[in-house]
């Protein structure tokens, strides 16, 4: 089984478990806990020598000595899951030498798993552009950039759901400045890059994974034609 196939299988299995739990009325912590246990079991059985960085497990500094590290978010969008919403996701990624090389993002309520191994073709862009922002913590910078670009802002939960909306052509730009962690965007970054989208920090620099610091404060995933305008608008509006 290839790494791409493994990522898809694990994301699919965790997504099916979580969907069943959500339909039974389970809360977010239970979803996080049970999905994490399933993911760890599957990855360790298939790739016993690879370290795993998971939101729901203690960090093992030994990962810093490995070229290959699985970076996972068992339930991205815990609040949305608990509220019975559909905008939550499962993230399974493999970083190799700091790069988001392999990724699968499951959107279980939509019965979708998007992967770096078989990304969908990108549909036509929207006019005006659609810019995705946090449903619960939108930042002033995102609002200012949207105004500068003449873009429509669309609130949505889950980083994975937002990133995959751009991959699916349902939106054009996902700009985030409210703080994230490596597991929030590693799998989405891998899928988005494979789909031909621009992926970077909001200053245009590449995202480096498997660093000692688990936090990643900002992210830009967008259609390539919007990369330069968005980065210019961010620089002009400030980075706060």
UniProtKB/TrEMBL annotation:
EC number of the protein: 3.1.3.7
Top-rank lineage group of the source organism: Bacteria
Organism name: Sphingomonas plantiphila
InterPro entries with a match to the protein in the record: CysQ/Inositol_MonoPase, Inositol_monophosphatase-like
Statement: the UniProt record of this protein carries the keyword Hydrolase: yes
Stored Gene3D superfamilies: 3.40.190.80, Fructose-1,6-Bisphosphatase, subunit A, domain 1
Top EC class, one word: hydrolase
Protein's name according to its UniProt entry: 3'(2'),5'-bisphosphate nucleotidase CysQ
GO MF term list: 3'(2'),5'-bisphosphate nucleotidase activity
Any Pfam family hit: Inositol_P
SUPFAM superfamilies the UniProt entry points to: Carbohydrate phosphatase
Keywords: Hydrolase
């Amino acid at each position: 089984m290839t790494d791409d196939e493994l990522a898809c299988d694990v994301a699919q299995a965790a997504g099916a478990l979580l969907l069943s739990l959500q339909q039974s009325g389970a809360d977010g912590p239970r979803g996080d806990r049970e999905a994490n246990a399933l993911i760890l079991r599957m990855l360790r059985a298939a790739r016993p020598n690879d370290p795993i960085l998971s939101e729901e497990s203690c960090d093992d500094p030994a990962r810093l000595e490995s070229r290959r590290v699985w970076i996972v978010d068992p339930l991205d969008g815990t609040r949305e899951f608990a509220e019975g919403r559909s905008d939550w996701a499962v993230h399974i990624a493999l970083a190799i030498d700091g790069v988001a090389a392999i990724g699968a993002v499951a959107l279980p309520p939509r019965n979708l798993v998007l992967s770096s191994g078989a990304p969908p073709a990108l549909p036509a862009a929207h006019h005006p552009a659609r810019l995705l922002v946090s449903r619960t913590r939108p930042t002033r910078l995102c609002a200012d950039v949207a105004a500068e670009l003449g873009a429509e802002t669309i609130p949505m939960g889950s980083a994975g759901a937002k990133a995959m909306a751009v991959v699916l052509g349902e939106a054009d730009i996902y700009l985030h400045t409210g703080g994230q962690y490596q597991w929030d965007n590693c799998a989405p970054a891998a899928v988005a890059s494979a789909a031909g989208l621009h992926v970077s920090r909001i200053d245009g620099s590449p995202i480096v994974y498997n660093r000692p610091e688990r936090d990643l404060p900002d992210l830009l995933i967008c259609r390539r034609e919007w990369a330069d305008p968005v980065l210019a608008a961010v620089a002009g509006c400030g980075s706060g």
